[in-house]
Specification:
29 strands; Trefoil (Acidic Fibroblast Growth Factor, subunit A); mainly beta; 350 residues; 39% strand; 2 domains
């Protein structure tokens, strides 16, 4: 009995001294600041009446993310922000831009586990503070997980990731885990994606699900393995390995989308486009010239295998030319080549 009572006392003291999660966000606008809006009781916190409305985020802190809405009752346009914001940031604007934002009227704060984290940066915008002065803002925000974060406002760079080899990060150009994507496991310096980040999946191979730390509805589990998908030409056919032959110098073509291994690709953290069978999309001979053939080759990290997505859905090699279908012919077995970048259908991919 004596040991039993001691056990109860120990449990009570431990429960009462558990560390609470502390998160908060502060807004501003019109020369005024809001009071801190904070997480309550370690649970998802909804705040419908925040005063204002407010045009700017002043600061955020804590292992939470913040979904902001431009209407009351959590309706209207929305934008997702992380912690660690320390400089004025216009709500709803693209990246760190100071233009075309909107005013926030309601907020949802969601606590997260901190097993993994990713820091986004935006430092290439100059904002006019007055008619006589300007300042370069170096914006940053951090998202924690495992989690699925959508409706990010289009940030261009990753500054850091943490959590070890068990953490994986899948970054999307679309706001709801769609369009172009890239998988990251580590970055050693500021990493510019080549397009704007609008949603992120953070997974941890040691956990069963990418669920939030709160008691809200759990998010279904997602595997941490690399994801392979088709690269579709705008007219409907898919990037394809000729004959399905997985060996060096096999030709690349377009073909009717069929879900085969020949059409499953993955963007690596080194900007390679890697097929599920293990070889990479390659510029033949490393020749940066119009009509150079595109082939399959052993992944080697060379410029011949580094690609990025640029405007109008074009895929550009880092040497400057774009992935192109010969003469723009939409037919099975049409060859894929390198060609100077133009705003034409022959170079548009989904």
């Amino acid at each position: 009995m004596h040991r039993f009572l001691i056990g109860i006392l120990f449990f009570t003291l431990f429960a009462n001294t558990a560390i609470a999660i502390e998160c908060g966000i502060k807004f501003g606008g019109g020369g005024k600041d809001s009071s801190w809006i904070k997480l309550k009781n370690d649970r998802v916190t909804r705040v419908n009446d925040i005063g204002g409305p407010w045009s700017f985020i002043r600061k955020t802190y804590g292992p939470c993310d913040f979904m902001l809405y431009n209407k009351g009752n959590y309706k209207g346009s929305r934008a997702h922000y992380g912690s660690g914001i320390v400089e004025r940031l216009r709500v709803g604007a693209i990246g760190g831009s100071d233009k075309n934002g909107w005013k926030v009227r309601s907020v949802i704060i969601t606590p997260r586990d901190t097993q993994c984290s990713i820091q986004l940066n935006e430092s290439d915008h100059e904002f006019q503070l007055s008619s006589a002065s300007s300042k370069i803002y170096n914006h940053k925000q951090v998202f924690h997980g495992p989690a699925r974060i959508n409706n990010i406002t289009g940030w261009s760079s990753v500054a850091a990731i943490s959590g070890g080899s068990n953490c994986q990060y899948k970054l999307y150009n679309g706001a709801n885990f769609d369009r172009q994507f890239i998988n990251l496991e580590k970055v050693s310096s500021l990493y510019r994606i080549g397009w704007r980040i609008r949603s992120i999946e953070i997974t941890n191979s040691n956990t069963e699900a990418t669920a939030p730390r709160s008691r809200s509805r759990p998010i279904p589990p997602r595997p941490a393995k690399q994801n392979y998908s088709q690269i579709r030409h705008i007219k409907g056919r898919c990037l394809d390995i000729a004959g399905g032959i997985n060996r060096n110098k096999t030709n690349i073509q377009i073909y009717a989308c069929n879900g085969s291994k020949s059409q499953k690709w993955h963007w690596t953290r080194n900007r390679e486009i890697k097929n599920i069978m293990g070889l990479c999309l390659d510029v033949s001979g490393g020749v940066n010239a119009d009509h150079t053939n595109i082939q399959l080759y052993q992944c080697n990290g060379s410029k011949s295998q580094q690609w990025r997505v640029i405007s109008n859905k074009r895929i550009q090699n880092v040497m400057g030319r774009c992935l192109d279908i010969v003469n723009g012919i939409d037919a099975n077995r049409t060859n894929v080549q390198l060609y100077h970048c133009k705003n034409v259908d022959a170079q548009q991919w989904n």
